[in-house]
């Protein structure tokens, strides 16, 4: 076994070799044409020091403004990185040239954890991705998603009941809601608490794995040879996290699968996507490939739900707390259209434009994953006179696009009424950028949209979101780091929530 000093020498030698090679590639690429505007790179390390560990969306929005460019280019140790700050440019590249920009960068951490072959969102463009995408669309298309509404409604009613009794735990309730819906749809697996074994395993998986695939998350993503270093080497925290993440990924899949197998044997299983697939085994309709693909689809949806639905629900609570005037207008619309004798349903959505505007504004004001998941260029390309090399990592800077003052006046303010035209009708700005672009649009967007909308309208129908009070009855002020609030509910709304739980058999 090599000693520590030998391994360090190998690592440093590899670092120097890779750095020099990639810088030579960078300089040779400049002969093909100028790269897009960006900070001036430093010798050997390029723009490594220009890449912030946090707040990349806002940072590169500012850099783009200084450069007066919708594109910001960086070279990090020879790795080409491009930020798209303008939606018009994203449409040109990620939509109209989707054939070129539908790839995903194959990060060393992703490969080490096996996520490149199981997570649809992180797979590179190719046959495996097409198989997963096809199966995903069969079960998550707009028409099929309608059949999941009873599942969403049942878990939403449970959340309302939890909010009724412990509003201070709103974040946990939001998390349970989003994961419970996904696990129920996929497996018929029931999650009613945050420390459920499957949920706990999935949370651990995301806690360990997501930081490794984010920009600046792991040095091995810049210097791929580092993934082969033993996990026991001092300082190799990424290597240790990879090993642990592999374990928790297997656990997250194993627990609900074993539970489903047990329930099917007992004859107590309810409908789910995986149970439907299992029931076809041995029949002419069996699709064994689809079965294996579904396991990857499951945790892809789980990860997406955790990163989108939970953060957007938290943003909704925050913005309603800070803007009671919009909250009151939304509640007035619900009272007028839905009334006070029942809870809102999915069928009410077309009749509630103000709620739709709040949904759009929540997704614009604080889009989950500010810079989205990265695309990768699959061949050399030129845009607006600039050269974009094959293998460039391309980020759609959602923060910059949704806070573009040329499109959204006073973009840093929360204002759902920006989505109404001069006639008081919803305008046609209905594209939710958080769901992605081109061929990499989120396959679960219909489930996510329906879940978030029914959550927003139901909470507004039942509760008033107000600032919490201290022991002297004074308002507790809210800041961006900490949210504390109170919920009040009328007796009529309380009865609706309790009756809904009785109707669900609880």
UniProtKB/TrEMBL annotation:
Transmembrane segments: none annotated. The keyword rRNA-binding does not apply. Pathway: Secondary metabolite biosynthesis. InterPro entries: Cyt_P450, Cyt_P450_E_grp-I, Cyt_P450_sf, Cytochrome_P450_fung. Keywords: Heme, Iron, Metal-binding, Monooxygenase, Oxidoreductase. The keyword Lipid biosynthesis does not apply. Heme binds at residue 442. One of its GO terms (molecular function) is heme binding. Its cofactor is heme. Signal peptide: none annotated. Belongs to the cytochrome P450 family. This is Cytochrome P450. It comes from Agrocybe chaxingu.
């Amino acid at each position: 076994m090599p000693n520590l000093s030998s391994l360090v020498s190998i690592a440093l030698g590899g670092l120097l070799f890779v750095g020099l090679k990639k810088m030579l590639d960078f300089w040779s690429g400049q002969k093909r044409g100028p790269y897009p505007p960006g900070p001036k790179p430093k010798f050997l390390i390029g723009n490594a020091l220009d890449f912030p560990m946090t707040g990349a969306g806002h940072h590169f929005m500012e850099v783009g403004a200084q450069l007066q460019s919708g594109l910001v280019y960086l070279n990090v140790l020879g790795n080409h990185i491009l930020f798209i700050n303008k939606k018009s440019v994203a449409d040109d590249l990620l939509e109209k040239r989707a054939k070129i920009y539908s790839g995903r960068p194959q990060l060393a951490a992703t490969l080490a954890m096996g996520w490149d072959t199981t997570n649809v969102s992180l797979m590179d463009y190719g046959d495996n991705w097409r198989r997963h995408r096809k199966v995903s669309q069969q079960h998550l298309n707009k028409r099929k998603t309608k059949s999941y509404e009873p599942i969403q409604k049942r878990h939403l009613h449970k959340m309302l009941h939890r909010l009724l009794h412990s509003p201070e735990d709103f974040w946990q309730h939001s998390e349970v809601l989003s994961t419970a819906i996904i696990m129920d749809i996929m497996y018929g697996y029931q999650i009613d608490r945050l420390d459920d074994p499957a949920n706990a395993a999935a949370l651990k998986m995301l806690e360990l794995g997501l930081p490794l695939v984010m920009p600046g998350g792991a040095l091995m993503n810049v210097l791929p040879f580092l993934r082969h270093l033993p996990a026991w080497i001092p300082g190799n925290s990424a290597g240790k996290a990879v090993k642990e993440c592999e374990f928790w990924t297997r656990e997250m899949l194993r627990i609900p699968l074993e539970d489903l197998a047990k329930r099917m044997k007992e004859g107590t299983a309810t409908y789910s996507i995986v149970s439907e697939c299992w029931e076809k085994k041995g029949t002419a309709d069996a699709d064994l490939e689809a079965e294996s693909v579904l396991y990857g689809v499951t945790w892809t949806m789980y990860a997406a739900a955790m990163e989108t639905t939970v953060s957007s629900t938290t943003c909704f609570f925050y913005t309603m707390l800070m803007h009671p005037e919009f909250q009151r207008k939304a509640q007035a619309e619900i009272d007028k259209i839905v009334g006070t004798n029942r809870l809102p349903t999915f069928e009410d959505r077309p009749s509630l434009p103000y709620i739709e505007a709040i949904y759009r504004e929540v997704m614009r004001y604080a889009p989950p994953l500010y810079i989205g998941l990265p695309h990768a260029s699959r061949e050399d390309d030129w845009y607006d006179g600039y050269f974009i090399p094959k293998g460039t990592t391309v980020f759609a800077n959602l923060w910059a696009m949704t806070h573009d003052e040329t499109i959204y006046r006073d973009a840093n303010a929360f204002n759902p009424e920006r989505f109404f035209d001069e006639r008081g009708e919803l305008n046609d700005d209905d594209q939710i950028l958080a769901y992605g672009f081109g061929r990499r649009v989120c396959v679960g967007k219909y489930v996510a949209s329906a879940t978030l909308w029914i959550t927003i309208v139901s909470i507004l129908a039942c509760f008033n979101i107000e600032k919490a009070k201290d022991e002297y009855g004074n308002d507790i002020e809210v800041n961006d780091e900490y949210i504390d609030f109170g919920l009040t509910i009328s007796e009529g709304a309380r009865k609706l929530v309790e009756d809904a739980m009785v109707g669900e058999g609880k």
